[in-house]
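Title: Comparing notes on inverse folding

I've been comparing how different people in this forum approach sequence design from structure. To keep things fair, I'm posting one structure and asking everyone to reply with a full sequence. Here's the target:
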């Protein structure tokens, strides 16, 4: 048996591991070997400890510092009136949960991967920014904001297939009487659930105080089959099942766009996923304002100025920034270490960990998959995969598989560093079930992205809780500020924070 494995620390931050992988034939898969790479920022705690021991190498005064280079951080940067700012992003690349990975010179999504045309009742600020970036344009006939780059639209006949415990179906929610009753029940909410979620009318806020499951159980003769499908959809987009999320969040999923009214909406999914939006925003920002490999690990205010501790993980030096304004668009759970005074506003936020597995294939003729391939099985954490062949068949073919774990399982992120092979094995086995064919022999390499605090779960009370989002020139942005975990909410949260900080 030829077996090698090695570990390498890259940039002091990302733990990369690659190992030859072997499959046993006990589950019918052929023996095969391919490298597995892991991308995780679970070593951050260790980095902070090392950084605190260092002397400050340089101190810089600037107007505004933005923590986090995800959608919210870059939207804030795009909305500032000053050019005197920096964005500090701890990862080597921008994007956060809308990030992408480079495989053979092409980018593939490693997180958020799609959006849909925007109705005209969506928030003006978000629409204006997307229009200014030449991403969308208004279609007056349909009264929708549609995407300009039509080559990234997924044809409706290639959108979705569903593997349901061994049987293939065309969509997750089976077409039956219960589904019709469900859609009729939600009809009363037509046009009342726009984005950003902060614009939902207060008359509907009572729906934030019960679970989606309790709401459905009250009005419909639900059965386990129906709930399994609903739970799949809620986990896939909102990080929690129907008994974890509020009715406000659940109904929003079905009513935020007119797709369940039979309207054919543009589905936009470039191969690099929502990293497309990151690229568009980053292009308009001066390169020297975008600092990757920069971890913010402390913030304090003295005499109206903010003193911000930053660790440059590439150069391994400690820097200080003295600023008038801060936009904090990083995950809020870390505030208990970075700025404990602010943590109380977000201590109710519970995060779903996600794991993304990109699998490169050397086989282009594997047929049967659509763009999104849903997967229902007793293992509820595996949500299926996206096939890049539907997005752009000129590049390498990559299947991107998604796992969403319950919020109690943050430790899994650490565990997967040790059990990467098992995870990839499970992924390849599931995808083989989907194709009814052993795909392990077609796999060239696998990349695992571990996202410990990936998605705030919109539990009852989360969306309507009063939070301090701006105080002492410190503004908070990001989907975990009481927003839904969606691109448009992340964008809007950043815009509002950027405006306050100008
Ligand atoms: C697997 C997955 C799939 C998704 N799919 C979709 C989808 O298809 N469509 C959709 O609309 N939404 C999707 N989402 C939701 C997505 O998270 C949001 O749309 C959006 O990308 C969130 O952006 P954000 O800026 O709020 O947060 P994040 O993307 O989490 O960005 C926060 C950034 O801050 C950085 N950071 C944190 N702390 C620090 C620090 N101390 N110093 C420096 N940097 C720091 C992080 O590294 C990160 O880059 C998905 C989420 C996940 C996890």
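Reply #1:
Here's my take.
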């Amino acid at each position: 048996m030829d077996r090698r494995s090695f570990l390498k620390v890259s940039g002091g931050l990302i733990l990369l591991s690659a190992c030859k992988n072997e499959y046993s034939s006990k589950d019918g898969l052929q023996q095969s070997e391919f490298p597995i790479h892991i991308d995780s920022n679970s070593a951050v705690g260790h980095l902070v400890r090392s950084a605190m021991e260092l002397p400050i190498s340089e101190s810089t005064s600037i107007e505004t510092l933005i923590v986090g280079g995800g959608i919210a951080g870059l939207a804030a940067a795009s909305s500032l009136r000053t050019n005197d700012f920096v964005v500090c992003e701890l990862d080597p690349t921008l994007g956060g949960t809308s990030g992408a990975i480079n495989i053979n010179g092409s980018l593939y999504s490693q997180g958020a991967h799609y959006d849909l045309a925007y109705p005209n009742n969506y928030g003006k600020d978000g629409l204006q920014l997307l229009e200014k970036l030449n991403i969308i344009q208004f279609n007056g006939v349909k009264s929708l904001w549609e995407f300009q780059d039509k080559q990234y639209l997924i044809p409706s006949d290639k959108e979705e297939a569903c593997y349901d415990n061994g049987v293939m179906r065309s969509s997750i929610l089976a077409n039956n009487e219960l589904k019709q009753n469900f859609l009729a029940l939600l009809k009363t909410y037509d046009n009342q659930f726009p984005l950003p979620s902060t614009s939902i009318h207060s008359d509907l806020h009572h729906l934030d105080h019960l679970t989606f499951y309790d709401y459905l159980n009250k009005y419909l003769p639900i059965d386990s089959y129906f709930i399994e499908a609903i739970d799949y959809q809620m986990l896939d987009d909102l990080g929690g099942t129907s008994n974890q999320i509020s009715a406000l969040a659940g109904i929003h999923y079905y009513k935020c766009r007119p797709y369940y009214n039979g309207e054919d909406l543009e589905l936009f999914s470039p191969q690099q996923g929502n990293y497309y939006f990151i690229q568009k925003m980053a292009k308009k920002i001066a390169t020297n304002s975008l600092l990757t490999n920069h971890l913010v690990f402390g913030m304090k205010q003295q005499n109206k100025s903010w003193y911000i501790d930053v660790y440059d993980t590439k150069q391994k030096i400690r820097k200080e920034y003295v600023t008038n304004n801060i936009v904090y668009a990083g995950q809020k759970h870390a505030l208990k270490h970075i700025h404990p005074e602010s943590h109380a506003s977000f201590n109710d936020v519970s995060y779903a960990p996600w794991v993304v597995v990109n699998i490169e294939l050397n086989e282009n003729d594997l047929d049967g998959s659509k763009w999104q391939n849903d997967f229902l099985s007793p293992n509820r954490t595996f949500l299926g995969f996206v096939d890049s062949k539907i997005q752009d068949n000129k590049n390498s073919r990559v299947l991107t598989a998604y796992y969403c774990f319950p919020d109690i399982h943050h430790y899994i992120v650490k565990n997967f560093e040790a059990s990467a092979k098992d995870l990839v094995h499970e992924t390849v086995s599931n995808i083989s079930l989907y194709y009814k064919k052993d795909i392990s022999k077609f796999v060239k390499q696998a990349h695992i992205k571990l996202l410990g605090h990936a998605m705030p779960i919109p539990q009852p009370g989360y969306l309507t809780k009063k939070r301090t989002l701006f105080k002492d020139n410190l503004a908070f942005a990001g989907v975990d500020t009481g927003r839904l975990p969606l691109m448009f909410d992340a964008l809007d949260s950043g815009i509002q924070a950027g405006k306050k900080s100008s």
